[in-house]
Every structure is written in C-alpha cells, then in structure tokens.
Amino acid sequence: MIPVVTPEEMAAIDRAAPEPVDVLVARAGKAVALRALSMLGGGYGRRVVVVAGKGNNGNDGRDATRRLRQRGVRVEVLDAATVGPGERLGPCDLVIDAAYGTGFRGEYEAPDPGGTPVLAVDIPSGVNGLTGEAAPGAVQADVTVTFAALKPGLLLYPGRGLAGSVTVADIGLDTSSVTADVVEADDVSSWLPPRPPETHKWRAAIWLVAGSPGMAGAAALAAGGAQRAGAGYVRLSSPGADLGTAVPQEVVRTKVPHVAWDTDVLEGLGRFKALIVGPGLGTDPATAPAVQRVVLESPIHTVVDGDGLTALGTHVGSYTHPLSVLTPHDGEYERLMGQPPGADRIEAARALARTANATVLLKGATPVVADYEGRVFLVTTGDARLATAGTGDVLSGIIGGLLAQGVHPLRAAASAAWLHGRASTLGPRRGLVASDLLECLPAVFDDLEA
C-alpha cells in the first residue's frame, strides 16, 4: 500500500518531524534534482527553468537548483509571483514547477512551457491537494515528485490527470499514523484466500436478489462477476420475474414472490456466505420494504447496489450495520445522504460509512472505499472504459464473491474495485462492454497468483 495524507495531515506530520525544516527541504531538493537529472538524461550543459514560490515548495525548488548547478546544469530561477499567466518560458530542456504546494487554494494560471517537459514539486501548481480540483490554467506536469505520501489531489481528477507519472520520495517523515492508502497488486494478492483442496461449492455460496422485467442483464452481470471472483454456487432470485435464458447457465434460479420475498430469502440464508441485493431490481413500491427488512436482518455479509440503495434512501442508517457493503455512484450517494458527495470524496465516503455503520465503496474515476471506523482505500487501476452500463453490476458481484470466501468487507470492496479496474485495462480500448470484464477477470487473477 502507498500512504495517502491530506494537506492538513501532511502539515501535522511536518510539524512532528524531529529534524528541522531545512533538513527536510534538503532531502526534498535532492529527490527533485535526481528526478530532474533522470529526465534530462544527464546534467552538464542542459538548461532548466525553475518557477519557485515563496514557501517551502519554492525552497524545495531552490535547493534542487543548487544541486543541479553542481552537476553543470544551467538553471534560471523565476519568481512565481512575477511570471505572467501564460507567459512563454525561455528555451530550455526542462521546467521545474515549484510555485505552489498542496496547501494552495484558489486559481493559478501557469506560464507556458512551450512543449518542454515539466517536473512538478509535490503537486502541480494550481491543483487543490485535498480534492484534485484545478482551474484550466493549472500546471500540466509530465512527472510529479511528491514527498512522504501521496496526496488526494494527485489521485482525484482533474489533479490526477495533471500530475503525470508520480513518484513518492522518502524524506524521513513518519507516516505510520495515516488512515488512507492506495491499494497495490501485492495487497490484493495477499488478501485473496487460498482454495483448500477439499473445498466444495457451498463454502463460497451467494444468494443474489436482482433483476426485474427489462433488467435481466443487470442480474446476469452481477451473477457472472460473483462466479468469476470465486463464488462456488450462485443462486439468483428475481422477485416476481422470469428472466428466461439471460443469466449464465451455471446460475441456480429460485423463484420468490413479487411481494414479501424478504421472508423467503431470510429463511433460506442458512448455507450462504454472502448476499447481494439490488442490481436491476426495479423500483416497484413493493421492493423498498422487502429490501429494508432483508438488509436489516441479514445475518451474513450483504452487498447493496443499484435499486437496493434507492430502496434504503435517506434512512439508510436505520437498516445497515457492519455486515453491510454499500456501492453508490454519485446519484445514489445523494439519495442516501440527501446531498451529493462534493469534491472531498474521501470525507464523503467516510461520512456515509459512519452514517450507515457499514463499508462504503464510492464509485468514480478513482473509487474510494471506507469503513465505519474511518479506514480508507483508494483504487487507481481503472480508466474511462468502465463508464458504460452494467460495469457496476459486475463490481457488486465481485465484491460478493470475495465476501463469500471470507475476505474482510473493507478489503473485499477494495480488492473488487482493483480487480474490476485492472480487468478493464485488458479489454478493448474502445467499445468495451460490461460482459467483457467477465472474460478478462480470470487473466487478472492468474497474473496475481503467478
């Protein structure tokens, strides 16, 4: 995992450091200089322009300047306060952006690098370190060297798109107290349970309550996600609906009544390890009370997605508990919390998790997973290919499949988002559809276990 700290947390970590500020600046400057030399392919005779502000971000840039000059680099240092917006910088081989750091607020219109590569110090100037928000004139970096930990603004768009390739430099600060991390492949691999040789289908059995007339695809995709994630047995019930042959042939279909189906489900959960409620379930008036009761009384881990979230509404905290996993996109989040998530997506996920006393996966370009104790995981494997109908249904199935195998809810949700994102990158660059993810998932698992 890679630690993630907010600007406020980073300031506290800086204050708690046993070394003086000038020592930390020297370490940061060294890290920037080394990355710059790597980008330059050497030092002697190269030209670099450093745009430096008045704070520690600028001090990092000035320290890097001193080191680069020692290596024969010709460096011009410009005061960020005097460089005009959009001003074309002189001919050079590299621009180092050290104008403003993670505490910057407001708008900044950067000078024009004229096509020269840009190395940002800590965060591209003009990007909000907490939210990733940025005005159109913010720095577009090719590479960012950040210190001690990642910042949310480097992970959330548009900041993530402005940061380029990000390197975290260790400058000796203690980040052991952080409560947010970016999930990596090794984390997911370590969280996946082994399959005992004597295992059988009921050890990872899922009941999926999903689908309605016209929404058979959502049920099929969720079922497929659960199967590909390792569920040994998937039972599908679509209240009052016959989904015909739309679902995978390996799925066991069990009828439940259109009304009061909650009783049948709750009475039959004894052999199941996880329950998924909501994909394509519809918004018939009879749906809400059944969903609410099932979620409230379920004795096993329960993923609530799609129309299941709509059924819970703003009274979500009356029905959910630590066995619940909620997977809202922004619109569903607003239905649960009465307001959109806003720019601070980490706090938004934490707020819903606290309200629901549950685990929350807030969907988006950078999924944020939080539990009721405030622990957070962020996932960066996916891309815009996932912005197509049905991918969320696959995701809910993957979460359920991992929960059924005994993975902790926070890790199951984060692992599912990581796997889901990685699977998308194995699909076509254009034209990916949700069912493609089902075909790509086995290769992702194989890579993890290689």
Question: What is the count of structural domains?
Answer: 2
Compute the CA-based radius of gyration.
25 Å
**Total count of strands:** 17
How many alpha or pi helices? Answer: 14
> What strand order characterises the main sheet?
1-8-17-16-15-14-13-12-9-10-11
Structural class: alpha/beta
Q: Please estimate the helix content.
A: 25-40%
Principal-axes geometry comes out as elongated
Uncertain runs are: none
Provide the CATH topology of the largest domain. UDP-N-acetylmuramoyl-L-alanine:D-glutamate ligase
Oligomerization state of this entry?
single chain
- Assigned CATH class of the largest domain: Alpha Beta
- Examine the secondary-structure arrangement and name the CATH architecture of the largest domain: 3-Layer(aba) Sandwich
| CATH H level, superfamily name of the largest domain | Ribokinase
> Would you tell me the overall average pLDDT?
95
